[in-house]
């Protein structure tokens, strides 16, 4: 059974860097893409970006200048960093595995609430 | 990239069928058959219920079905059950190689 477990700091001040890590179990990193998705309070979801099993990345154009997603194949972990956060970055952040077809998300982490407040 | 448009809420009585629409553009829903749907109960992570417009993952009830026409995708839930009360989100791959989600729909079982 595939499991994704994520962690990271939940309270940040404006201008700090958000850092989250997601460990995956019961699945290999190879042949899959991995995404980060966020959901602001009371709003819909927003795709943040993805990393392919060979390390290539694609980001949401609205966040591209501030986000970096990386993959540690030795630890079966995917990480995300978002710099210069503001209150608008307050959200629940999820890591997710793409399905074998590639264009959907078939397994999700439990979510991490990140609050940005001075 | 603007969010896909979904109705804010839909309701139905047990046993009835409901349909949730998801409207995009010719650059996302209209361009690919890569629409997916997710069910999310309060405080939990989303769960995939439909992928590639109309395919159900193993373990998902046959009562969930998906379709697409032009720039609009739809999710139908037949034989509505109390446990179907949740938020539903659509998602589409885009011509820019990114993903866009819908605004979300809250389903209430009366």
Entry keywords:
heterodimer; A: mainly beta; seven-stranded mixed β-sheet; 52% strand; B: 110 residues; mainly beta
Description:
By secondary structure, chain A is mainly beta. Helices cover 0% and strands 52% of the residues of chain A. In chain A, a hairpin with a 5-residue loop joins strand 4 and strand 5. The mean pLDDT of chain A is 94. Chain B is mainly β and 110 residues long. Helices cover 0% and strands 44% of the residues of chain B. Chain B has strands spanning 9-12, 18-23, 35-40, 47-50, 64-69, 72-77, 86-93, 99-101, 105-109. In chain B, strands 1, 3, 4, 7, 8 and 9 form a six-stranded mixed β-sheet that branches. In chain B, strands 2-6-5 form a three-stranded antiparallel β-sheet, with no helix packed on it. In chain B, a hairpin with a 6-residue loop joins strand 3 and strand 4. Chain B is globular, with a radius of gyration of 13 Å.
Structure described in brief:
Chain A is mainly β and 118 residues long. Chain A is 0% helix and 52% strand. The model of chain A has no long low-confidence stretch (mean pLDDT 94).
Helix/strand layout:
The complex is a heterodimer of chains A (118) and B (110).
Chain A (H helix, E strand, L loop, with lengths): L2 E6 L2 E2 L5 E8 L8 E6 L5 E7 L5 E3 L7 E6 L4 E6 L8 E8 L6 E4 L3 E5 L2
Parallel strand pairs in A: 2-11
Antiparallel strand pairs in A: 1-3, 3-8, 4-5, 4-9, 5-6, 7-8, 9-10, 9-11
Chain B lengths: L8 E4 L5 E6 L11 E6 L6 E4 L13 E6 L2 E6 L8 E8 L5 E3 L3 E5 L1
Parallel strand pairs in B: 1-9
Antiparallel strand pairs in B: 2-6, 3-4, 3-7, 5-6, 7-8, 7-9
| Biggest sheet overview of chain B | 6 strands, mixed
**Low-confidence runs of chain B (pLDDT<50, min 5 residues)?**
none
Total strand count of chain A, please?
A: 11
Shape of chain A: globular
